[in-house]
Amino acid sequence: MLICIVADAGYDISDIKAVGIGCPGTIDNVKGVVVYSNNIKMDHVPLVDEFRKYIDIPINLENDANAAAYGEYIANGNGVNSYIFMTLGTGVGSGIIIKGKIYRGFNCAGAEIGHSSIVMDGKTCTCGKRGCLECYASVTALIEQTEKKMKECPDSLMNEWASTHGKVSGRTAFECARAGDKAAREVKAQYIRLYWHTCHLKY
Ligand SMILES: [Zn+2]
What we know:
- The protein is α+β, with helices and mostly antiparallel strands.
- The chain folds into two domains: about 1-115, 2-Layer Sandwich (Nucleotidyltransferase, domain 5), CATH 3.30.420; about 140-200, no CATH class.
- It is built from eight helices and eight strands; from the N terminus they run αββββαβαβββααααα.
- The protein has helices at about 1-10, 45-50, 65-75, 135, 140-150, 155-165, 170-180, 180-200, and strands at about 20-25, 25-30, 35, 40-45, 60-65, 85-90, 90-100, 100-105.
- Helix 5 packs antiparallel against helix 8 (about 180-200).
- The longest helix is centred in the last third of the chain and has 18 residues, at about 180-200.
- The radius of gyration is 20 Å and the shape is globular.
- It starts with a helix and ends with a helix.
- Zinc ion (ZN) binds near residues 125, 127, 129, 132 and 134.
Protein backbone atom coordinates (compact mmCIF):
# COMPACT_ATOMS: atom_id res chain seq x y z
CA MET A 1 0.00 0.00 0.00
CA LEU A 2 2.84 2.38 0.89
CA ILE A 3 4.46 1.79 -2.51
CA CYS A 4 1.10 2.37 -4.26
CA ILE A 5 0.60 5.72 -2.49
CA VAL A 6 4.12 6.84 -3.38
CA ALA A 7 3.70 5.73 -7.00
CA ASP A 8 0.31 7.49 -7.28
CA ALA A 9 2.06 10.70 -6.25
CA GLY A 10 4.55 10.25 -9.08
CA TYR A 11 7.55 9.16 -7.00
CA ASP A 12 9.64 6.05 -6.59
CA ILE A 13 10.05 4.51 -3.13
CA SER A 14 13.80 5.32 -3.35
CA ASP A 15 12.89 9.06 -3.52
CA ILE A 16 11.56 8.95 0.05
CA LYS A 17 14.27 9.95 2.53
CA ALA A 18 12.31 9.92 5.80
CA VAL A 19 8.84 9.18 7.17
CA GLY A 20 6.89 11.23 9.70
CA ILE A 21 3.85 9.68 11.35
CA GLY A 22 1.28 11.72 13.26
CA CYS A 23 -0.91 9.48 15.41
CA PRO A 24 -3.54 10.33 18.04
CA GLY A 25 -2.91 9.21 21.60
CA THR A 26 -0.01 8.98 24.02
CA ILE A 27 3.16 8.49 22.00
CA ASP A 28 6.64 7.37 23.10
CA ASN A 29 8.54 9.06 20.28
CA VAL A 30 11.91 7.70 21.47
CA LYS A 31 10.83 4.04 21.24
CA GLY A 32 8.39 4.69 18.36
CA VAL A 33 5.51 3.19 20.29
CA VAL A 34 1.83 4.20 20.54
CA VAL A 35 1.49 3.74 24.30
CA TYR A 36 -2.25 4.32 24.33
CA SER A 37 -4.83 5.62 21.88
CA ASN A 38 -8.46 5.55 22.93
CA ASN A 39 -10.04 6.73 19.68
CA ILE A 40 -8.36 4.21 17.38
CA LYS A 41 -7.82 1.56 20.06
CA MET A 42 -4.08 0.97 20.28
CA ASP A 43 -2.24 -0.24 23.36
CA HIS A 44 1.58 -0.37 23.29
CA VAL A 45 1.78 -0.78 19.50
CA PRO A 46 5.37 -0.56 18.11
CA LEU A 47 4.25 1.43 15.08
CA VAL A 48 7.74 2.45 13.91
CA ASP A 49 8.93 -1.18 13.94
CA GLU A 50 5.84 -2.13 11.91
CA PHE A 51 6.64 0.54 9.31
CA ARG A 52 10.29 -0.47 9.22
CA LYS A 53 9.29 -3.89 7.90
CA TYR A 54 8.36 -2.10 4.68
CA ILE A 55 10.76 0.84 4.46
CA ASP A 56 14.15 1.11 6.18
CA ILE A 57 14.77 4.86 6.41
CA PRO A 58 14.51 7.33 9.34
CA ILE A 59 10.97 7.17 10.76
CA ASN A 60 9.66 9.56 13.40
CA LEU A 61 6.44 8.94 15.30
CA GLU A 62 4.70 11.87 16.97
CA ASN A 63 1.35 12.66 18.51
CA ASP A 64 -0.78 14.13 15.71
CA ALA A 65 -1.64 17.33 17.60
CA ASN A 66 2.03 17.82 18.52
CA ALA A 67 2.92 17.37 14.84
CA ALA A 68 0.23 19.89 13.82
CA ALA A 69 1.40 22.35 16.50
CA TYR A 70 5.02 22.07 15.35
CA GLY A 71 3.99 22.38 11.69
CA GLU A 72 2.14 25.58 12.54
CA TYR A 73 5.27 26.86 14.28
CA ILE A 74 7.40 26.18 11.21
CA ALA A 75 4.86 27.48 8.67
CA ASN A 76 3.13 30.35 10.48
CA GLY A 77 5.09 31.09 13.64
CA ASN A 78 5.49 34.78 12.82
CA GLY A 79 8.04 35.12 15.60
CA VAL A 80 5.86 33.43 18.25
CA ASN A 81 7.70 30.42 19.65
CA SER A 82 5.66 29.46 22.76
CA TYR A 83 1.96 28.64 22.58
CA ILE A 84 -0.78 26.02 22.99
CA PHE A 85 -2.36 24.64 19.83
CA MET A 86 -5.71 22.83 19.80
CA THR A 87 -7.31 20.60 17.16
CA LEU A 88 -11.03 19.85 17.12
CA GLY A 89 -11.89 16.66 15.27
CA THR A 90 -12.81 13.13 16.32
CA GLY A 91 -11.46 14.17 19.71
CA VAL A 92 -9.79 17.28 21.10
CA GLY A 93 -6.04 17.24 20.55
CA SER A 94 -3.51 19.75 21.73
CA GLY A 95 0.16 20.50 21.41
CA ILE A 96 2.32 22.72 23.59
CA ILE A 97 5.28 24.50 22.02
CA ILE A 98 7.76 26.14 24.39
CA LYS A 99 10.62 28.14 22.92
CA GLY A 100 10.26 26.32 19.61
CA LYS A 101 10.24 22.81 21.08
CA ILE A 102 7.43 20.33 21.67
CA TYR A 103 6.61 20.01 25.37
CA ARG A 104 5.76 16.38 26.16
CA GLY A 105 5.42 16.33 29.93
CA PHE A 106 5.04 13.31 32.20
CA ASN A 107 4.70 10.03 30.25
CA CYS A 108 4.48 12.10 27.03
CA ALA A 109 0.91 13.03 28.00
CA GLY A 110 1.48 16.61 29.15
CA ALA A 111 -0.66 18.09 26.38
CA GLU A 112 -3.70 15.80 26.69
CA ILE A 113 -5.99 18.76 27.37
CA GLY A 114 -8.89 16.95 25.68
CA HIS A 115 -9.03 14.59 28.64
CA SER A 116 -9.29 17.28 31.29
CA SER A 117 -12.60 16.91 33.14
CA ILE A 118 -14.82 19.97 32.74
CA VAL A 119 -18.14 18.46 33.92
CA MET A 120 -18.38 16.65 37.28
CA ASP A 121 -19.94 13.18 36.71
CA GLY A 122 -20.44 14.14 33.06
CA LYS A 123 -20.56 12.00 29.93
CA THR A 124 -18.37 8.90 29.77
CA CYS A 125 -15.36 9.48 27.53
CA THR A 126 -13.70 6.91 25.26
CA CYS A 127 -10.71 7.12 27.66
CA GLY A 128 -12.87 5.75 30.49
CA LYS A 129 -13.08 8.96 32.55
CA ARG A 130 -16.17 11.14 32.83
CA GLY A 131 -16.79 14.72 31.79
CA CYS A 132 -13.72 15.14 29.56
CA LEU A 133 -13.49 18.24 27.37
CA GLU A 134 -13.60 16.16 24.19
CA CYS A 135 -17.03 14.77 25.19
CA TYR A 136 -18.35 18.32 24.72
CA ALA A 137 -16.02 20.25 22.42
CA SER A 138 -14.90 17.77 19.73
CA VAL A 139 -16.56 17.69 16.32
CA THR A 140 -17.89 14.25 17.29
CA ALA A 141 -19.63 15.90 20.25
CA LEU A 142 -20.90 18.77 18.11
CA ILE A 143 -22.46 16.27 15.69
CA GLU A 144 -24.12 14.45 18.62
CA GLN A 145 -25.49 17.75 19.95
CA THR A 146 -26.73 18.66 16.45
CA GLU A 147 -28.44 15.30 15.91
CA LYS A 148 -30.14 15.51 19.31
CA LYS A 149 -31.55 18.95 18.52
CA MET A 150 -32.65 17.81 15.04
CA LYS A 151 -34.75 15.07 16.64
CA GLU A 152 -36.26 17.55 19.11
CA CYS A 153 -36.97 20.07 16.34
CA PRO A 154 -38.04 18.22 13.16
CA ASP A 155 -38.90 21.53 11.47
CA SER A 156 -35.38 22.86 11.95
CA LEU A 157 -33.47 23.83 8.82
CA MET A 158 -30.76 21.44 10.04
CA ASN A 159 -32.88 18.44 8.96
CA GLU A 160 -33.20 19.80 5.42
CA TRP A 161 -29.46 20.67 5.39
CA ALA A 162 -28.54 17.10 6.41
CA SER A 163 -30.72 15.54 3.76
CA THR A 164 -29.30 17.86 1.07
CA HIS A 165 -25.69 17.11 2.08
CA GLY A 166 -26.30 13.42 2.82
CA LYS A 167 -25.01 13.63 6.40
CA VAL A 168 -24.76 15.69 9.56
CA SER A 169 -21.37 17.34 10.00
CA GLY A 170 -19.65 19.96 12.11
CA ARG A 171 -20.87 22.55 9.59
CA THR A 172 -24.59 21.75 9.93
CA ALA A 173 -25.43 23.83 13.00
CA PHE A 174 -23.09 26.69 12.13
CA GLU A 175 -24.37 27.12 8.55
CA CYS A 176 -28.03 26.83 9.59
CA ALA A 177 -27.45 29.27 12.47
CA ARG A 178 -26.03 31.75 9.96
CA ALA A 179 -29.20 31.26 7.89
CA GLY A 180 -31.26 32.24 10.95
CA ASP A 181 -32.46 28.84 12.22
CA LYS A 182 -33.36 29.13 15.93
CA ALA A 183 -32.60 25.51 16.89
CA ALA A 184 -29.21 25.70 15.12
CA ARG A 185 -28.40 28.89 16.97
CA GLU A 186 -29.08 27.09 20.25
CA VAL A 187 -26.71 24.26 19.30
CA LYS A 188 -24.03 26.75 18.30
CA ALA A 189 -24.46 28.83 21.47
CA GLN A 190 -24.23 25.76 23.73
CA TYR A 191 -21.14 24.47 21.91
CA ILE A 192 -19.35 27.81 22.06
CA ARG A 193 -20.27 28.31 25.73
CA LEU A 194 -18.64 24.99 26.70
CA TYR A 195 -15.57 25.67 24.60
CA TRP A 196 -15.22 29.22 25.96
CA HIS A 197 -15.57 27.91 29.50
CA THR A 198 -12.74 25.46 28.90
CA CYS A 199 -10.43 28.04 27.41
CA HIS A 200 -10.73 30.02 30.63
CA LEU A 201 -9.98 27.12 32.99
CA LYS A 202 -6.86 27.58 35.09
CA TYR A 203 -4.47 24.67 34.70
ZN1 LIG B 1 -11.29 11.42 28.14
